[in-house]
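Hi R.,

Here are the chain sequences for the assembly we discussed:
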Amino acid sequence: MVSTVVDRRELDIIEKDVPLSGFTTWNVGGPARYFCQPESLDQLQKAIVFADEFDLDTIFLGNGSNLLVSDEGFDGLAVRLGPGFGDLENDGDRIRASAGTPLYKLADVSNKAGSSCFNFLTGIPGTVGGGLVMNAGAFGSEISDYLTEFSYLDPSGDVHEVSRKDVRFNYRSSPFQGCPDKIVLEAEFKLERGESQPDMSEILEQRREKFPYSKPSAGSVFKNPTEVDMTAGQLLDEVGAKGFSVGNAAVSHQHANFILNKGHATAKNIQKAIDILRDRVYKEFGVTLVTEIVVI
Ligand SMILES: Cc1cc2nc3c(=O)[nH]c(=O)nc-3n(C[C@H](O)[C@H](O)[C@H](O)COP(=O)(O)OP(=O)(O)OC[C@H]3O[C@@H](n4cnc5c(N)ncnc54)[C@H](O)[C@@H]3O)c2cc1C
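And here is the predicted structure of the full complex:
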């Protein structure tokens, strides 16, 4: 339990009833009872103390590119790291990035330092914090492959430094998923030089051919299953998912694992589409698809 008393004047960054739809790439989500975008560790710690004092649940948002927030919103404090958490330092061998840094910046800066190891992140619209929590990846690489250490803030407002070797990451998962009270602050990565990944522009071109970028989405909805030798997209394609819709939530014709918001789709529409598609795949293949997106 945190004992520090927060001066009300210090809490002017906390707003009330802020719609979260503006902070998710699906453009859906109801209001957060409280919302803030801290610009410094001090402001973040005060927000955490505020949540603790008033016994509020917390959620942390990166770029909201893997989030489905319910239409009813969130009855607690939603914290989105502001631009003050976008610093990145590069000494030529290692990169230290604040959690709010966009993933493309990691790729861009590494490239300029002569390493293509982060090119796989090109076109993934997340932040370093969200990327770490989701263990973002593509083209056979994952962000945790290059992680050396990171720090997080606990609910008491204390900062912890963690070494990569003490933490287990798996395909699109990390120990931070399902831990809504720990916020990733910074991460350090090593720059591998022996790799030759395709150019960022080439990757972007490949991704544009494969994935729909013109309408709001949250990327792949389901993880690839391990029990069959087919991707989630292939299974969904086989059950005729492409073009299927619930309200304005429609499965992309380009990629069956993407549900698009074609305009004013609700979280309920998207959730219903997810449930129906999971059911279809189960009936046809006996495979229970697990969502990659995080539902709030
Ligand atoms: C068009 C498109 C393409 C995509 N392609 C890919 C792809 O190829 N590969 C891939 O892996 N993903 C992909 N994604 C999904 C998404 O971009 C990634 O999962 C990304 O890493 C999410 O980062 P974010 O900052 O948006 O996190 P959010 O979506 O904001 O959050 C995701 C989770 O992380 C938590 N979180 C966020 N920041 C923090 C923090 N600082 N501390 C603690 N918890 C935090 C949230 O609470 C939530 O549980 C795609 C998405 C889109 C829209």
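The longest strand covers residues 183-190. Residues 1-6 have pLDDT under 50 and may be disordered.

Let me know if anything looks off.

Best,
T.
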